[in-house]
Amino acid sequence: MGDERRPGDWQHRSHREANTIVRDPSAKKWYQETFWIIFFLVVFWPVGLVLMWRGDWPLPVKCVVTAVLAFIVFMVWGMYQAVLLAS
Q1: Per-residue pLDDT tens for 50-82?
Q2: Rounded to an integer, what distance in angstroms lies between the CA atom of residue 40 and that of residue 53?
Q3: Which of 12, 13, 35, 66 is the most core-located residue (most Cβ within 10 A)?
Q4: Are 62 and 48 in contact (CB under 8 A)?
């Protein structure tokens, strides 16, 4: 008996082989990836802001992106108010 290896017998394979198919526990989740954070900042900015602030981006970048988005929202709101008053 001993260390007899048969094709398809997963119980007798070494632990090293089995560990290669397990994902890295320190790998980022999809919503922590920079691509998806930027995607949501452009497509649906409230979700993008939350993901950005929960992520591991540097604080100055978070502040600048938040300020730029706040400025854009303020400008869009101001233009909307101007159109409402003009009509």
Answers
A1: 999 999 999 999 999 999 999 999 999 999 999
A2: 13
A3: 66
A4: no
